[in-house]
Amino acid sequence: MKNISTNKPLDVLKVFSFKGIQMQTFHITWITFFFCFFGWFGIAPLMKIVKDDLGLSKAQIGNIIIASVSATIFARLIIGRLCDTLGPRLTYTWLLAIGSIPVMTIGLANSYETFLLFRLAISVIGASFVITQYHTSAMFAPKIKGTANAVAGGWGNLGGGVTNMLMPVIFAGFVGAGYANHDAWRLAMVIPGVILLIMAFVYYKFTKDTPAGNYVNIKREAVQKGSFMSAASDYRTWILFLAYGACFGIEITFDNVAALYFTENFSCDLKTAGLLAGAFGFMNLFARAIGGIVADKVGNVYGMRGKGWLLAGLLAFEGIGIMLFAQTGSIVFAVIAMLGFAMFLKMANGATYAIVPFVDAKNVGSVAGIVGAGGNLGGVLAGFLFKSESISYAQAFMYIGIVVAVIGGITALIKFDKQESIVVEPVLEVA
């Protein structure tokens, strides 16, 4: 029976409804996360222009790729804890306000060193994912958490694809207005920075920490001081840490290098490369949600153990798909392979966070932060491969595919107690 109380977590996800603080917060949090990608990866599809403007080498671009996801590792660990204490509303508001500054001012960079520092500062915005997943988990009942998290995360991740498509258009708009390339890319980045400031106001004004109200206004159970250690001491948290590095970590790496890869390997122009890279991200419209929905249904039949097996299988197929992508010399087959491994990758993203809220229910923020940090660590490690002068981008993708498949095998080792099984049916409505 669907709960009708206005101050309780919902047990149904009405994706086209804005009624009630639960659905209002759901939509605001994924939309905010969507725009965070414009700030986080807005410069990625313009890297060919930046490379020429600043005279960057392959190794320097590799360092920039690493910087773009590295600070997020530590930020996600901190943000998860802040969600448990301050609440997601204030945490997100401050992150957006602070993160908008380097996004708007990255255009002041005139050398490799200053650009690298700006890219490092911008990477903190990636911690927004943890807040989105935390906030969504707070608004929905256990049987629908996986689905709600996957839809919110997927639609937010869609921003990575739209960014690759739209930022070259914004850049071209400034060029059409008479600005030279070296000025146009700098001005283009002001746009996502302003959007982040606007979303900071929206988040503060129109969301609440929980269906019952904000943390400062409601009575809550005391958060244990050792809550982070409780989450960190569970080996399953660290297997999910690896798993998320193998799916989301590769996603953000691909968001960073896809446009440049298609430009240099297949001689695509900037707009075409952006569209192809955008197609990868656009699959978040449905793929991550499917991963969460399937995980919830599998959990209903086979419990949490079944969710672990599902995630392991998705990672294995993702790895195989990446290896196929690495070996093709045809742009047609490359796009087909890309869409194939993207489907498994994004479903794995959704399946991972269909498990996260149940590892340690008292410390969801800490678990979410650790696992989320694993995603960015995966991106950092993958970035070192693209930095190397001794291997090609194609070889880097081959190595990544192998590692992802191996992590899929490790993920199959996750075990859950019987009492941690999920035996309820998820509900998704479109009304």
From TrEMBL:
The chain crosses the membrane at residues 28-47, 59-79, 91-109, 115-134, 155-179, 185-204, 238-262, 274-296, 332-355, 367-386, 392-414. It is a multi-pass membrane protein. Its main location: membrane. It is found in: Membrane. Residues 25-419 form the Major facilitator superfamily (MFS) profile domain. Keywords: Membrane, Nitrate assimilation, Transmembrane, Transmembrane helix. Belongs to the major facilitator superfamily. Nitrate/nitrite porter (TC 2.A.1.8) family. This is MFS transporter. It comes from Arcicella rigui.
